[in-house]
Structure formats: C-alpha cells, structure tokens
Design goal:
The complex is a heterodimer of chains A (about 220) and B (about 450). With about 220 residues, chain A is an alpha/beta fold. Chain A has 2 domains: about 90 residues, Orthogonal Bundle (Methyltransferase, Methionine Synthase (B12-binding Domains), Chain A, domain 1); about 120 residues, Rossmann fold (3-Layer(aba) Sandwich), CATH 3.40.50.280. Chain A is built from 10 helices and 5 strands. A 5-stranded parallel sheet of chain A has the order 2-1-3-4-5, with helices on both faces. In chain A, helix 1 packs parallel to helix 3 and helix 3 packs antiparallel against helix 4. Chain A is globular and about 50 Å long. Chain B is an alpha/beta fold and about 450 residues long. Chain B has one domain: Alpha-Beta Barrel (TIM Barrel). Chain B has 17 helices and 9 strands. Chain B has a 7-stranded parallel sheet. In chain B, strand 5, helix 4 and strand 6 form a beta-alpha-beta unit. The chains are: A alpha/beta (about 220), B alpha/beta (about 450). At the A-B interface, helix 4, helix 5 and helix 7 of A face helix 5 of B.
C-alpha cells in the first residue's frame, strides 16, 4: 500500500491526472491519480489515508517548488487537477462522514470589486492543501458572508480586494462576522491591502501570498 | 483586419513624440505632433464613495487637477492630459462621473484662459459589464449606463474617450492561469474582437456626435495581468510576451471602428498600433511604478506620444500630494524627450537607443517592444487574413525572434522559461486559420456556464 500511495503522491506532484494525460511525458500511458486512487480504495486504503499520505504529500511538494520558483502556476494547477481527480473518489466518503477534511475555507472578493484572479489562485492552493473551499465569487456583501459563515461555523473566512475604494468594504464584513461570532477567523489579501490595514480593521491575518494563508490554516487546524 | 500595411515601415521612424496621424485637441494640444506630453492619472485613497462622501471626492479631484496645473505653470509645462478613469460607483451613477468631469474641466479651462496652459481630459469609464457573470456584453443594462457616461461626460468636458474593455475576460483569466494559449486566442482574438467591434462603433459614434475624439482601448486586463503574474513568477515571462503580441489585433479594433488615438497608457500593445495605424499612443514605464511593477521602465518610452504614471493614490508624500509629485516626475521625463526632439533626429534616436538597450535584453516582454522587433512583428500581423490569424502570425514571429535571441545568448532567459517555447510554437501553429473552424472547435471545449456566445454575436 505504501508504494501505491507514493505513486499517487508522485502523480499529484507532477500533474498526472489520469491514464490519458499526456504530461508528464515519462508517465505517458500509465495510470494517473484517478486510476491509482480507485485502486488504493479497492485494496482497502481509507479516504483519510489517501488524502493525508498521498494527495497532501504531492500537493505539499509542488507547493514547495512553487514557493521556491521552481515551477509556474500552470504546473500547480495540473497538480490540483490530479488531486481533484483523486478526490472525486474520496468525496462520497467525506460526505458520508466516513472521513474528514482538514477544515473549511470560505472566500470571496468583497462588494464592489470584480477582480478574481488572486482569489481563484488562493482557492486553488487552499483546496489543494486538503481544505474544503466555498468560493462565493466576486462582489460579495456582508450578508452573504454571514449566511455562509452560519452554515459552516468553524470555517475560516477569506476576503479579497484589488481597489483602494473596495478594500474599505472589508471592514464592514469583518465587523459583521465578528459581531455574529467573535471567534470567526478572517483573513484578508489583495494588492492595496497591508498589515496595518489588517490590524486597523481587526482582521486576523494579512498574507501577501497564498502560501502564507495555507501555513496559517495549517496552524489553526493542528 | 482593416490594416494591410504598416503606417511606419522603418524602425528609425518609430519614435517618441511623432506619429503619422497626430491628434489635435480642443485647446490645441497636438498629440503625436512633435512633442511628448505628460498624462497624469490618479485615484482616491481608501474611502467609500456615496452621497455623503461625494462632496469631498469632487473636491479631491478638483484639487488634484488644480495643483498639477499650478505646478505645470511653475515648471513651464507645454501641455497636460488628465486621465479620469472612473471608479465603479462613478460609472454606475453617471451623475457622479459627469460632476467630476465638470470640476476637472473648470480647472483646465481656468488655467487655459488665464495662463494659456493647454490641458485636456481623457474620460475612461470602467467596463461595468463584468459585474454580471457570465457577462451580458450586448444586452446588459450596464452597457447603457456606460454609454450614458460617455455621452454626458463628453458634453461636460471629456475630450478624449477611452475604455479598458473586458470582452472575453471571463474566458481569459482562467486560461492565463493555465497558460492555455488556445483559450487565450479565443478570448482575445475571437470574443474580444467581436465585443470591441460592437462597443467601439458606439463610442466612436458618441465622439463624432459630440465633436470629441475617440481615443482608444487597452488590453490592460489581459496583457498587464499576464505581465504582473509573470513579475510574480506565476507564469513564464515568455508566455506574457506572447500574450502581449496577441493583444494587438484585439486593441486595433478600436481604430478600425473610428478611434483616432491616443491609445490608452496601460496598453503596451500601443507601440504595435502606432507602427500599424500611425495613430499616436500613450505609454507608461518607470514613472508608473507607483501603480505596478514592470520590466519595461525605459523601453516603454521608445515611441510614446503621451507619457503616463498609470495611477497613484491621492495621498500626502514628503514633497506634496502624490499626484502633484508624479506630475512633476512626468514633466521632467517629457522635458528630456522633448529636448531630444528639439535637437533633431539623431538625438531622438540616441535617446531612444539608450531607453531600448537598457531594457530589451533583460526580459522577453521588453525585447518584443524594441522598435526593430515591433516593426518585424507588426509586419507579420498585417499579413493576417483575419484578427485571429493576425494574432497567431504575430505571436509566432515574436517567439521566433525571442528564440533566436535566447539561443545567441543575447536575451536573458532560463530553462524553465525556455521550455515553453516549443510548446507555444506547437500550440499556436495548430490553431486553424479559419475563424469558423476555430470557433466550432472551442465551442465544444469551453465551459458554457462561463460565457454567453450570443452576447458576442456568435
């Protein structure tokens, strides 16, 4: 089993989604994360085992490479796709309560702002690290965040903004969330956002990059 | 493609300050007529925009313009363009946008009448249609709102009409993160082109009706997004350079539909537009580092007719408020350009040589902007049988130039970057020349929940 989990991790690290995937060339024609995950489940591996010892390991390795500028985002996205292919087999087990994700992360670009490349990148990195991600999209108001936070009371919330005139909307949302539940953790990011602004509006984390956020989530989850 | 040959065929003629088809404004600025003028851009500091704050906002805009004009007098400025790029609320409520144009125009007129200082306002409403996902490019009520601001803002004193249109962006953004050049070609050169054909017919119509100048568009949300992601090392710089080339046959549509220039500052594809169409352009480089980083600080000025700072928040710096500070920097930059112009062609080419050679071999995005490469790539673009074909031909030429420069050791690169060269060549070469064939192919691939093809006339 250990060898099989290593193979799955390798497929995730190098973005080998399934047998038909042309990349990476040295794995052409071989089973990918999709087939190998099914095989591991058939052989008795648990969903949590596969998630923890294969998928997160593979994503972790590609995440380190990304941080060290050894791969570009498309490679990370291929890894995320390989992970998703594997997760398709595991999700029913998580949904039934037979296995658990690391946590839930709710994210959205704040009201008045339509920029979502940064938000999407963060979503992908967080999901790839084993969290369930609820992406609320762009132009999201405080009420929507509150509604989702009520549905997922232990979720961490992420707010994104790219404009100086929309980042101010983060404050209303943080206030609303904290008023409802002071324990809710709120993370913020985006080009004009700073640590000072984070402190001022009483948010819990400002991170200039997705990796910093993942580290924070891992710390909360541990 | 309407343009079948280059307006500027020689790299020696692709210079700053002069364009084959200069634009004369209401107060007498001749853009592309032998001088480079500063184009000052600014935005608000973090604040809400609503009825309560609007008096303060209006006052901030008035003060920004007044202070720049006053500094302009002190620095013997020969002309200024102010870009008013509206924030979302100012487009959603056109009366906000129009009121701001009015106060800006009052200051411009005041300094013109009292002191003879020429200035104009470029009015750039933001593209609201993105608010709907998937966007309704043709049937959205937001389109009428944007056009209302164009019309009323032009009446209030907006003389140069521009927009950063976003047709195709709903497909482009994901495609960029995946470095999927096929989908990028579909977004830019099929969807973007069709959207701009519809939109710019209307904008040029408003400009004609109001006696104003249809300036131009920019693929900022496409090409500059790629550039910024490349700066963060999220995507290869070579990929961003290719995307930039592919924006040309999209942004040129504004001119095909009646825009006269100056093209907008944040569209670095402007250099190619100038070579192909002869219209003047605005560019931004080192003095726009307040808004975004780039590898194009000097080379961007090589053939600029307006020189811009892109955007700066209205905050206090040690010297003065930031827009005034940036106006001064732009003024000194343009003085240098204009000193070279007044000294003659050999000095123009000498200054341009330093601007070009100080950047071009350090980054492929700078390399393609060297006038010699702009001319070579543009010459391929105009051979295209349609906008898609033009983009592919230009991109393949750009890759070939980059590949040669890398293999000869002239252009800085890396193994990680170089790995994308053969992949891009293969992918681009496999895109059908026939738009119909390509559209049919992409229609079967693209997620239908992301875009509405009927909104692009497909």
């Amino acid at each position: 089993m250990e060898e099989l989990l290593k193979q799955i991790a390798h497929c995730v690290e190098f973005g080998k989604i399934n047998q038909a995937s042309p990349y990476p060339p040295d794995l052409k024609g071989k089973d990918g994360a999709d087939e190998l995950t099914k095989k591991a489940l058939d052989q008795g591996a648990t969903a949590e085992e596969i998630l923890t010892n294969a998928l997160i390991v593979g994503m972790g390795k590609v995440g380190v490479k990304f941080r060290e500028n050894k791969v570009f985002v498309p490679q990370v996205l291929m890894s995320a796709k390989a992970m998703s292919a594997a997760m398709a087999h595991l999700k029913p087990l998580f949904a039934s309560g037979a296995a658990k994700r690391k946590g839930t992360f709710i994210i959205g670009t704040v009201q008045g702002d339509l920029h979502d490349i940064g938000k999407n990148l963060v979503s992908m990195m967080v999901e790839g690290n084993g969290y369930e991600v609820i992406d609320l999209g762009v132009d999201v108001n405080a009420d929507t965040f509150l509604t989702e936070a009520e549905k997922y009371p232990h979720a961490v919330i992420g707010l994104s903004a790219l404009l100086t005139t929309t980042m101010v909307n983060m404050e209303n949302i943080v206030n609303a969330l904290k008023e409802k539940n002071p324990e809710t953790k709120v993370c913020i990011g985006g080009a004009p956002v700073t640590q000072d602004f984070c402190n001022k509006i009483n948010a819990d984390l400002y991170s200039p990059d997705p990796q910093g956020l993942v580290e924070y989530l891992d710390k909360l989850a541990s | 493609m309407k343009f079948k040959k280059l307006a500027i065929e020689s790299m020696e003629d692709l210079c700053f300050g002069t364009a084959p088809s200069p634009v004369t404004t209401r107060r007498g600025l001749i853009i592309g007529g032998g001088k480079v003028y500063p184009e000052l851009n600014f935005t608000l500091p973090p604040m809400h925009i609503n009825d309560d704050t609007f008096p303060d906002i209006k006052n901030q805009y008035r003060e920004i313009v007044r202070a720049a004009l006053q500094r302009g007098l002190e620095l013997y400025s020969e002309g200024i363009v102010f870009e008013f790029e509206t924030l979302i609320e100012m487009t959603k409520n056109p009366s906000y946008g129009v009121d701001i144009v009015k106060v800006m125009n009052e200051e411009c007129e005041n300094y013109f009448v009292k002191h003879g200082l020429k200035s104009e306002i470029r009015l750039t409403p933001n593209d609201l249609r993105e608010f709907e996902r998937p966007p309704k490019q043709r049937t959205s009520g937001y389109l009428d709102t944007m056009l209302e601001l164009f019309e009323e803002g032009a009446k209030a004193g907006g003389d140069l009409l521009s927009i950063e249109s976003t047709g195709g962006k709903e497909i482009f953004d994901d495609a960029l993160m995946h470095c999927n050049i096929r989908e990028i070609a579909f977004a830019l050169n099929v969807l973007g082109v069709r959207d701009m054909q519809m939109l710019w017919e209307k904008i040029a119509g408003i400009a004609d009706k109001q006696g104003k100048i249809a300036g131009g568009d920019t693929a900022c949300g496409f090409g500059n997004t790629a550039m910024v992601l490349a700066e963060k090392k999220y995507i290869p710089k070579i990929f961003a350079a290719v995307v930039r080339i592919m924006t040309v046959s999209r942004t040129i549509v504004a001119i095909e539909q009646g825009a006269k220039g100056p093209d907008k500052d944040c569209g670095y594809e402007g250099a190619f537009l100038k070579a192909i169409t002869g219209t003047p352009i605005s560019m931004e480089g080192k003095t726009a580092a307040c808004a975004h980083l780039s590898p194009l600080g000097n080379i961007a000025g090589a053939c600029a007719d307006l020189w811009s700072n892109e955007s700066v928040q209205n905050i206090k710096l040690l010297a003065d408020m930031a827009p005034t500070v940036y106006f001064e920097q732009l003024t000194y930059d343009t003085r240098l350009f204009n000193q070279a112009v007044s000294s003659g062609k050999s000095d123009i080419l000498k200054l341009q040589k330093y601007m070009v050679e100080s950047d071009m071999y350090l980054d492929p995005q700078a390399f393609i902007l060297a006038p010699e490469n702009v001319i070579k790539i543009s010459a391929e673009i105009v051979k295209g049988s349609n906008h898609l074909d033009a983009a592919i031909k230009g991109a393949l030429k750009g890759i070939s130039l980059i590949e040669d420069a890398v293999s000869e050791g002239r252009l800085k690169s890396s193994e990680m970057e170089d790995a994308y060269i053969p992949v891009l060549k293969d992918e681009l070469s496999s895109i059908p020349v026939s738009e119909d064939e390509f559209i049919a192919e992409m229609d079967s691939i693209i997620d239908k929940t992301k875009y509405i093809k009927e909104e692009y006339g497909l």
